[in-house]
Write a structure and sequence with these properties.
With about 425 residues, the protein is α+β, with helices and mostly antiparallel strands.
């Protein structure tokens, strides 16, 4: 039986005390580390053994992974500092309130189904709510647009009539040999919403409902109320859709710019099926096994901030997310609203509450604000200075962003550079 090493998310090396004798014996290597799948230059964690003590740097990721396969695994939970534990589910929900953010979920997390699964306490399961919340938000956007209609094949045992193609083998087996001479098994096409992709989505909605019924203690009453309302809203739209019978069937959707959420919803749905081993009863367990996974908190923080900005700049085109420029440069957020035009860089670094942003981060922002293409995007003359804003977590700040607060705190030594703290949702407060 493997053991878990629990580490709270910190952004600096921390010495791990009170290790069991088992873990001290098993973790004998000098260095253990893991890179994020989508960004090999970023480490999910790094453990260093100096022969006497074990030190950990958890960077900006939460999740679980093997240190020594079958013997020891590391679990990193969201905790911003010594007294604040982040309400990860609430942060995800608020990040996805803006329907535009649903389009930016790529690379938020990675799941490695190729490795042996790791047993963890059910209340520590971060992967399942991540998948469920994302799927429900995608399904809600699909329903608001209207379910996609297309041609799909129907097989039916018709009475006294023929439609489409007669399935000779099935007809002989189920009708001729049983003397059902007025029956004919036919295969034909229909046009409507009862397509395999919609049947698959309805199946996943059922999994989501079962999960919320069985794991309702994981969510606050407010979160559960909101998610169940979304579920009921979606299920109403799927009333005329059957549930996919073959859970292992691969669903392929032809590309369509208007229905682009379908591909992502089906991808997340397949993750959910694998997560619960295609068995809806496995949504109710006190102990759970999970594949190794990592969630990029810096990416989630970007989505969280972008969602906040969308509330104060709601008009189309006022702000944009991840604009790409020549040379591989990509801004986090651009604010194009008159009087507030600037480049926003989101940094998941709570230490900026008491210190100036690092030189590297200031240089990065300076690089963005000097790009001619950024000037063109913001419609700013080249003889003016583009303002730069670094947004970071600050649990002493407000959870609401106001326009008037964007440029209040200047970054010393830099012209038109500012920083802004924002409070993240908290699960609870505790000492030590």
């Amino acid at each position: 039986m493997h053991r878990l090493l629990f580490i709270s998310e910190q952004h600096q090396y921390q010495r791990l005390d009170n290790l069991s004798d088992y873990l001290r014996a098993v973790l004998s290597e000098e260095i253990y580390q893991k890179s994020f799948f989508y960004r090999p230059d970023m480490l999910c964690f790094r453990l260093y053994n100096d022969g006497t003590n074990l030190f950990a740097d958890t960077n900006y990721f939460i999740g679980v992974d093997w240190l020594v396969p079958e013997k020891a695994a590391v679990y990193i939970e969201p905790k911003l500092n010594a007294i604040s534990q982040i309400d990860f589910t609430q942060m995800l929900l608020q990040s996805l309130e803006g329907t535009e953010n649903v389009n930016h979920l790529d690379n938020l997390f990675h799941v490695d189904y190729s490795q042996t699964w790791i047993t963890i306490p059910t209340q520590k399961d971060l992967l399942s709510p991540t998948l469920i919340v994302q799927f429900l938000m995608l399904a809600q956007k699909i329903v608001r647009k209207g379910l996609r209609r297309s041609y799909y094949r129907v097989t039916e045992n018709l009475n006294n009539r023929v439609k489409g193609k007669i399935l000779i083998g099935e007809q002989i087996k189920h009708n001729i040999l049983k003397n059902r001479l007025t029956k004919t098994i036919c295969s034909y096409q229909e046009y409507g919403i009862n397509t395999p992709e919609n049947q698959f989505l309805k199946l996943i909605l059922q999994f989501a409902g079962s999960y919320m019924d069985q794991r309702n203690s994981f969510f606050t009453s407010e979160q559960l109320f909101k998610l169940k309302n979304i579920l009921h809203f979606c299920l109403t739209a799927f009333e005329q859709v059957s549930v996919l019978e073959n859970k292992h069937q691969r669903i392929k959707v032809s590309p369509n710019p208007f229905y682009k959420e379908y591909n992502k919803a089906i991808e997340i749905g397949e993750y959910i099926l694998k997560r619960f081993s295609f068995n809806i009863s496995k949504t109710n367990q006190t102990q759970t096994s999970t594949p190794p996974f990592w969630i990029d908190m810096s990416k989630l923080f970007e989505l969280f901030v972008f969602g906040k900005f969308k509330k104060i700049f709601p008009r189309p085109g006022e702000i944009t997310y991840h604009d790409a420029f020549m040379g591989g440069k990509e801004t986090d957020i651009l604010i194009k609203s008159d009087g507030y035009k600037c480049v926003v860089d989101c940094k998941y670094k709570p230490q900026y509450q008491s210190s100036s942003p690092s030189l590297d981060d200031k240089r990065q922002l300076a690089g963005y604000t000097r790009l001619k293409s950024v000037y063109n995007k913001l419609s700013i003359p080249l003889d003016q200075v583009v303002r730069g804003l670094i947004v970071y977590p600050n649990q002493n700040a407000s959870i609401v962003i106001e326009k008037e607060s964007l440029f209040k705190t200047n970054i010393e030594e830099y012209v038109s550079f500012y920083k802004l703290g924002i409070k993240l949702p908290e699960l609870s407060k505790f000492a030590g």
